Structure formats: C-alpha cells, structure tokens
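Posting here for the record, re: nickel (II) ion.
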Amino acid sequence: MIFESHAHYDDEAFDEDRDALLASLKEHGIGPVVNVGASLEGCRLTLELMKRYPFLYGALGVHPGETAELNEEKLAWLRQQCGTDKVVAVGEIGLDYHWPEPEPSVQKMWFERQLELARECKLPVIIHSRDAAKDTLDMMKALHAEEIGGVIHCFSYTKEIAREYLEMGFYFGIGGVITFSNAKKLKEAVEYIPTDRILVETDSPYLAPEPVRGRRNSSLNLPCIIQRIAEIKGISCEETETVTYDNAARLFGIA
Ligand code: NI
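Prediction output follows.
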C-alpha cells in the first residue's frame, strides 16, 4: 500500500470524476490519502471529503498565496475545525515569493499564526515554501518549529537546506518533480535525506510526474515517484513503499 501524503481532491479539476477516481484508488494499491486544504473553501471541502471516504484524512490551513483572506474570525473557525476527528495536520502553510502577492509581511504574519495554531492543537505542519528558503527557515527556527514537527512539502531546495530541516526533525515530501530529467539538485537532496524521513506525495492535480508530465495529476501516478526514489536509494520499490508508508503513518499519527 502507498501512503499519499499530499493531494487536493477538493480541486475543481476533479469535479467530473472525483467519486469514481477516489473509489478506484484502493484497487491500485493506494491506501491513506491526506487531502490538504489550501484556502478556507478548500478546508471546508476537505472536511466534507473526510466524512465521505474512510481512507481520506485532512490537513487544514491556508496557503501563503491565499492568506489575504484570513482574519481573526476565520482563524478561530480553523482552530475549531482542527479538533475534528481525522484532521491530522495544519497545512499547507508557509511562504511563497514566486508571486508578488500577498506581500511578504502578510504571508509572514499568517505563517506565524498558523504555526502557533498547530502548536496549540498539537498537530504537525505541512510547509509550503517556494523561492523563500531563507525566510522560511529563519522563521521556523525563531518560532521553534522543531517542537511542532511536520513535513516540507514538495521539497525543492538544496542538500544544505535539507540538513537544517533534518536537524529540526522534519520529514520531506517528494513528488513528481523527482522524475524530471532536470531535477539534479533535488536528486542530490534525495540521495542525502535518510529514507526514514521521506514521504511520497503527488500534490494532485498539480505536478504530474514523467511520463504524464503536464496532465492532470492523481494518486494513481504515485508508483512513478516510488520507482524513481527506489532507483536513487538503491532499494526495491516494495521497500520504498513500506518505509514511506510507515513514515507518513508515524508523522500523522495514523495506525
Ligand atoms: Ni499542495
């Protein structure tokens, strides 16, 4: 069984065949799925999906690019929902400087508030960090994120940055990017990261791996990612599947 640690099945890209697709995962060897909220609406839909599918768990949080929608009242709603059964993480939260908005000060404020929310709720965090390596690490160190724990989703920084997060006890979400021929830096990082700190993820509907790059992604493509990690680590696909499953189950507290 493969543990899908990061997908967005609430996305409208799945409106046409969501139920059929989710129902087919088990026969393709896909076990638990963590559906990750990226906006308040995404969190609301995640809560609905969790009720409908026993194998689907939820992460609740607001992506840095969407933080302009947050206020005290909405954060209080998130806090309340984090107590729901099967909510296993706060996320995805972090910093994204790839796009100019919202401005960094807004992103930082809500990143800090959501890290503190995770601490209060005793949940791990799912971190989104894009073109913001230094600020993300600086904030996480200053706020003692090592006491909270979690995963750096779609890890795409260097081995040196990986070392810092390893020391903080974090896990690394590895997805479709590892199958791209130009992913040299990431390949080095995956060689370096111990196998017991790696989770597999698709970020569906985004980031489809080779050979289906550019199309709508789904958890059905996880074997391509498992295979590439197995090649890099010099272990079998079965072992990669088992270890990454155990890692995710440990992090998210799923038996
Ligand atoms: Ni995502």
